[in-house]
Amino acid sequence: MGGAGMLSCAKGDIGIDPFRYIGCSSEDILGMQHLQVPEHGVLLVENLTPFHSCIDQVSRDRSLLVVWSGGFPNRGVTQLIQAAASAKARIRVWCDLDLSGVRIARLVHKQTGGTAEPVLMQPDVVRTASRGCKLSEVQLRNIERDLESHPDDILSETLRALLERGEWFEQETLLSKIPELIRL
Fold first, then answer.
1. Cα–Cα nearest to 175, from 57, 21, 3
2. Which of 112, 124, 137, 158 could bond 85 through an S-S bridge, CB–CB 3.0 to 4.6 Å?
3. How much is the pTM?
């Protein structure tokens, strides 16, 4: 995690601000007694390269806590996100524009009681993105199956846009949009 914030643990406080970013074990986060969330809340980022790019953007304005999930959130990341939700902090989640990314965003949305907002994951982002990867037959079938089971879930329209486009998109192809993401 990087940007700003403070973790209060049994053995002391850890300020995030002095560091470019820090890593904590799930066990340390599970033992966290309090999370002080900065003014602009938390941004959860699925992949490492986009996480680093977000850190570069927030290094000038330390009013956001950026958390790398490394894919589906583990117990520590889940605890951190739930602590932020309990503090009524704004929580945003940014993932790849594919079925796994949508499922991660849905999971975080559910873990926060429906308050986490997906960002750079809307259908218009799919429609205007420039460099995608062709959806395989398996990916197409899995998205169709998901839409049959969850037609009205959050980001269902994004999945429909992916099917329409026939492509999925890595977060890395959207790095140029990070400045607007940080301002959202």
1. 57
2. 112
3. 0.94
